[in-house]
Amino acid sequence: MKLALFKILLLSIFLTSCAGGGDARKIPSDVKERQRKNIEEGRGFRLGGVLENKGGTFDFASSNELWRASLDTLDFMPLALANYSGGIIVTDWYSDGSSSGESVKISIRFLSNEIRSDALSIKVFYKKCSIQKSCQVTDRSGSLSMDLEKKILAKAAVYEKQNKSKK
């Protein structure tokens, strides 16, 4: 029974594949042109470029000097978010314990992978809480953000120099 079913299936595959034939004068010799024509006529299918090799470069966080320098600079603070593909690092609220009720949060956005002064956008937020737990958050992205930017850029330049000397 199974053998007979297999033979019928095999025979039907051979017969349907031979149907239609083709006139060599009407079939383009160029492969790309044949593919285009078959797709226009509704024959065949396309995977939408899934199997095509698009190449490209894949950067990892460890190869980006600005990213590494930023994480090294903020290594004493707990991180709330570190998204390399999104280009952002956000710390959690941090307090060193010296001033009660006051904590700081830092946000770094990467605007470029190049080591330049305009490659980073750093925001520093202070939170001051009173005894009744009413907190006030203020943006103080002044001198501290400039100091952080200088420190990050200096570290990134050192990392870049080390990478070039390794190569």
Structural class estimated from helices and strands: alpha+beta
CATH topology of one domain: Alpha-D-Glucose-1,6-Bisphosphate, Chain A, domain 4
* CATH class (first level) name of one domain: Alpha Beta
Rg, rounded, reads: 31 Å
Topology:
Blueprint: H1 2-18, H2 31-40, H3 65-73, E1 79-83, E2 88-91, E3 102-110, E4 120-129, E5 135-139, H4 143-166
Antiparallel strand pairs: 1-2, 2-3, 3-4, 4-5
Helix pairs in contact: 3-4
Could you characterize the architecture of this molecule?
With 167 residues, the protein is an alpha+beta fold. The chain has a domain at 61-166: Alpha-D-Glucose-1,6-Bisphosphate, Chain A, domain 4, CATH 3.30.530. It is 36% helix and 20% strand. The chain is built from four helices and five strands, in the order H-H-H-E-E-E-E-E-H. The protein has a five-stranded antiparallel β-sheet, with helices on one face. A hairpin with a 4-residue loop joins strand 1 and strand 2. The chain is elongated and about 85 Å long. The mean pLDDT is 80.
